[in-house]
Specification:
This protein is of the alpha+beta class and 385 residues long. It is built from 14 helices and 12 strands. The structure holds 6-O-methyl-beta-D-galactopyranose.
């Protein structure tokens, strides 16, 4: 009964010292573990920078060797950050529109109805990846047929079975985006590429490189995170059919339940920052130009704020989780992700009663000192109507 559990590997270090350490490609990272420190540091963009010179360095594992394009607005600091963020924000709020939600609902219904007809479904590849990719066509406002290409790329655009940082794989994404930008420049449509190409920032048009930066973030940032969230949700309801029943009977708790699942899953373990000047965190000296990371996954289990942090309490009332980050760089895709989750839960409670787990293989992230389960490599289930 605990296949769906995501244990907290950070507890002891969070209590003892408040931070952990990992070596990432000889560029060490101090991992901040307490909610209070994580929030404080996320707000302090002057001391903890996202937009440093070395593109890709704030991601852990660092992407400096596989990416030259700055992701926007994610790798830009204030005040410039605001110009970009304000530009893209309205587009990423479209999930609040009814028409958008109807499209997502049709996508989710098709996949769940299909799954109900099968004796066994592998959730990661045949369910979550398919929903994520098809839903992305709605976010980008591109033809549905594009999702087939994206499904073929697999669950992560920079990682493959052979390598955690696969440059060849990354190049497939970069080339694809370059082509799409050229296509949109020649023949504009109503898609995100065309919208960005026509946009102005500080009185000038966005460059193709800037458009590419927004598009890489849109493809990479919401991929494995969303896939893990959907897969973990299916595993959770498989082991907690009473929760599915409770949401069906009390649909008003749906949003609260989603926030709690997202707190518990913490789909993005942590995100880095570059320290701009010598400073101290948890009474520990940190040198200028070194890296820290803000560990959302650990902060979400901080017992100082969350009662019974290791339980999924689907009607948890006070839930200031940081799964979507905190402060300036809070997740641009959060509205899309929350809307998608709401639709998935709505369709599940209407069409599915129980889910049987037939086989599984955990996906464990290796942070040196810490090994964290983030989801599954394989999850085979049977959906029951
Ligand atoms: C970056 C990151 C953003 C990074 C919100 O997270 O997601 C990671 O999966 C990507 O590898 O490049 O986009």
């Amino acid at each position: 009964m605990n296949k769906s559990a995501l244990p907290d590997p950070f507890e002891q270090a969070r209590l003892d010292k408040g931070f952990g350490e990992m070596n990432d490609q000889n560029d060490p990272v101090k991992i901040l573990l307490r909610l209070k420190d994580v929030r404080k540091s996320a707000k302090n963009w002057k001391a903890f920078q996202s937009g440093g010179e070395e593109v890709g360095r704030i991601v852990v594992p660092s992407e400096v060797h596989i990416r030259d394009t700055r992701q926007i607005p994610f790798e830009v600091d204030p005040p410039q950050h605001a110009s970009y963020r304000n530009l893209v924000e309205p587009w990423f709020k479209r999930p609040l529109e009814k028409e958008y939600q109807d499209k997502l609902k049709a996508i989710v219904e098709t996949v769940i109805e299909g799954a109900l007809k099968e004796d066994v479904i592998e959730v990661v590849e045949e369910f979550s990846l398919v929903i994520q990719s098809r839903a992305l066509t709605v976010l980008l406002n591109t033809p549905f047929s594009e999702s087939k290409t994206w499904i073929d790329w697999g669950t992560h655009v920079f990682r493959s079975e052979e390598s955690a940082l696969d440059g060849d794989k990354a190049n497939i994404l970069y080339d694809y985006i370059d082509n799409e930008i050229d296509r949109a420049a020649a023949n504009p449509t109503d898609d995100l590429y065309s919208k960005l190409l026509a946009s102005e920032i500080d009185g000038r048009k966005l460059t193709k490189e800037e458009v590419k930066g927004v598009m890489i973030l849109t493809f990479a940032g919401g991929r494995d995170t969303v896939i893990n969230t959907i897969t973990n949700t299916i595993a959770y309801f498989a082991e907690h059919p009473e929760s599915l029943k409770r949401i069906k009977e009390n649909p008003e708790i749906t949003n609260t339940a989603i926030e709690e699942l997202i707190r518990y899953f913490a789909p993005l373990t942590h995100m880095g920052r570059v320290v701009t000047k010598d400073t101290e965190v948890c009474e520990h000296a940190i040198e200028a130009q070194s890296r820290v990371s803000l560990c959302w996954a650990s902060a979400n289990r901080d017992a100082k704020t969350f009662e019974n942090p290791n339980d999924v309490v689907i009607d948890r009332q006070i839930n200031p989780h940081v799964s979507f980050g905190f402060g300036t760089h809070n997740c641009l895709g959060a509205t899309h992700a929350r809307t998608l989750m709401k639709i998935i839960l709505g369709v599940l409670v209407n069409k599915v009663t129980t889910i049987d787990i037939l086989d599984h293989e955990d996906n464990i992230e290796d942070l040196d000192q810490f090994k964290r389960k983030v989801g599954f490599h394989v999850l085979k289930v049977k959906f029951n109507a």
